[in-house]
């Protein structure tokens, strides 16, 4: 349903905008109906930028994003509003998503004013309480409160409930549980998975690999704006092919095994992006003979439903 | 025993009354021990760390004492604590990496800091450079402003600064939480190497991420709502926890290899109590599946196995029967 085709986003930086920062380069993937896709990457990998591009908070520099076959960059006015009725986002920090001087349920009132001005008050109240129950909140306990009177988990679930009120088909969940406590984060994660069974598609943006594995069927690993590896979650986790993915997997703290002694090269000072592979500076197996420093490796299918962008791994 | 904390009770004074953030904390950290301190936000873990080094208003010491290398720390006295701070006991506060002075170069900042402790900055330079190499930072960093460094680099600078004078005890508060997994691993492993090289004798590592502690800590202390719940060697906490809270907490953590479709994990129902007027007895009582009448009294924190302390009446009961 949602499709990204060769999407790039270039920011102009520097005093007079003379320099270019390639936040996202040439990214293509799809999210099917009722599917959860994890977008995994470290800070600066462009994962949040992709989320914002999908939500039309930013516009792409090149490439195309289509939703049910319609190019979203052409949407305007009432059609764009209709798009937002179907596609919504929830972001990382629940505390900064609210205005602290208003009560937290103001976000629901705004939704009513904007999208359901005709609806009767009683009917709306019923719908609102239904949405709150769907996210595991008791309406009597959480309505009519200020943001500081609610916990991070409750506020985050408010935002998901707000998205649900709109009958959305696609949710961009940008690091939505990284600010929550261990005992409550799993509930929010289960909630997302339950919504999926109701037909909702989710783009689950995270830096935590175990969360990505828990919830998604497919994963996309990003590094510096480029897709390093993507495909079925089990395949990527069982047999990571890209050296970057391998390094990530080795660095994840686990409860069933200790870190092995492997050298993790730390991020070098962000060097200018040349023509070569974006991971060239940190890659332990980079080889000039393969052209790692001069050509950008294309994404090739290493096995069924498992793509990798590395000259070392079957990429020609 | 490097650090010995006895019955430490610290409340916050607010207009609405006292917030009972830390109750009757009694535990020890041995020489060379890395103790992890874990719990949900608001459980008092940062309060515990801060009260060991800088117990300032609105915090108020109710009772208890703290011994470092056999010497009592005057924790309630801001002035008399000064000679201990940075030299004997040091802290990396939460978000410290964002608190570096943006108008000072790193080198100048370090020189000023050393001067404030009457240490000769120029004579210290070779040692400083040796340590920069250890944390894989180039010497040019000394001539850079904080804005020129990445998050992981800033965190390493902060670690280096807080251990410069080889303190007996280092408190590291959430130092890995804002970092990428690869930097997280590097920073955590550097903490261990600091201990191995005896830059610090013992460490208390505070985090909400138990899987990081499993990688680096020798023992883990679990707190809940201001009370100590369990302290045990790392393996025991992760694989054979005895407090119901620890058990539920460990089983709610998603792991690589666990999928929603195959095994649905569950969280802990309910929320932690307000500490302004906390319920009597065990504070986990209301969320605990095993709670019974006895839990209306505060369970003592006692040793059930060598090095394994737990505060739960149900455990004591099963122990007595066995």
Topology:
The complex is a heterodimer of chains A (316) and B (322).
Chain A lengths: L1 E12 L5 E13 L4 E5 L6 H8 L7 E6 L2 E2 L5 H10 E4 L15 H10 L5 H14 L4 H4 L9 H13 L5 E5 L7 H16 L3 E6 L2 H7 L2 E6 L2 E7 H6 L4 H9 L48 E4 L2 E3 L8
Parallel strand pairs in A: 3-8, 3-9, 6-7, 7-8
Antiparallel strand pairs in A: 1-2, 1-4, 4-5, 9-10, 10-12, 11-12
Chain B lengths: L2 E12 L2 E13 L4 E5 L6 H9 L5 E10 L2 E2 L5 H4 L7 E4 L13 H11 L4 H14 L16 H12 L6 E5 L7 H16 L5 E6 L2 H7 L2 E6 L2 E7 H6 L4 H8 L50 E4 L2 E3 L2 H9 L1
Parallel strand pairs in B: 3-8, 3-9, 6-7, 7-8
Antiparallel strand pairs in B: 1-2, 1-4, 4-5, 9-10, 10-12, 11-12
Helix pairs in contact in B: 5-6
Number of helices of chain A: 10
Globally, the shape of chain B reads globular
CATH superfamily of chain B: P-loop containing nucleotide triphosphate hydrolases
Q: How many extended strands of chain A?
A: 12
Share of helix of chain B, binned: 25-40%
Radius of gyration of chain B: 21 Å
* Average pLDDT rating of chain B: 90
Shape of chain A: globular
Can you summarize the main beta sheet of chain A?
8 strands, mixed
* CATH fold call of chain A: Rossmann fold
**What is the CATH C level class of chain B, in words?**
Alpha Beta
